[in-house]
Amino acid sequence: MEGKTILLVEDNPDHQELTRRALAAADIFMFTVILGEGPEALEFLHAEGAWADRDGKRLPALMLLDLKLGASDGVEILRRVRQDARTKMLPVVLLTSSSSQADISRAYAAGANGYVVKPVDFDEYSSALRAIAAFWLDVNVAP
Q1: CATH number, domain at 95?
Q2: Burial of 138 (0-12, 13-18, 19+ CB in 10 A)
Q3: Is position 12 within any domain?
Q4: 92, containing H or E segment
Q5: Position 106 in a domain
Q6: pLDDT, tens digit, for every residue of 4-31?
Q7: pLDDT score recorded for residue 143
Q8: Dihedral, CA atoms, 61, 110, 101, 142, nearest 10 degrees?
């Protein structure tokens, strides 16, 4: 996992902190970029706006995307990621509280690589993040 970046797109500051703590509890110590809105995440990925100085060729190894963002819809952000040649292969896992079958189907139809319902229990949440990171950052062979 060394040298890899996780991009977390989560609008709720409490959930941002919970995820940061859960990653640490899961012994996932890597560079994590936490952004609150989808458009900001797209700017980060494309090295635009506030992120114009970032090397746009260096994508995160994994994007954890909340489904229900304040001003934007996570599935719409996912669609935009998939439509861009630079980011279409980026692994994106929806990390959300919604267990709605309609939301799950919508996410996969838009190109999600995974869909994880956030466990309520902190230890279970940490274990879920450990499993996600182990697969996408250690086991999976990226293009």
Answers
A1: 3.40.50.2300
A2: exposed
A3: yes
A4: strand 92-96
A5: yes
A6: 889 999 998 888 888 888 888 777 767 7
A7: 78
A8: -30
Q: Is 111 helix (H, G, I), strand (E, B) or coil?
A: coil
- Based on the structure, what is the number of domains in the chain? 1
Work out the percent of the chain whose per-residue pLDDT is above 70.
Answer: 97
- Angle between the 74-83 and 101-109 helix axes, to the nearest 10 degrees? 10
Contact (Cβ atoms closer than 8 angstroms) between residue 41 and residue 63 = yes
Q: Which residue has the tokens 């838009």?
A: 110
Run of H or E including 105: helix 101-109
Q: What is the pLDDT of residue 134?
A: 87
Domain that holds residue 113: 5-119
* pLDDT tens readout for residues 27-57: 776 778 889 888 999 999 999 999 999 988 8
Whether the pTM exceeds 0.90: the reply is yes
Strand 31-35 to 62-65 pairing: unpaired
Q: What is the phi/psi pair of residue 73, to 5°?
A: -100, 130
Q: How many residues does the chain have?
A: 143
For residue 125, is it within any domain?
no
Cα gap 101→136, rounded to integer Å: 24
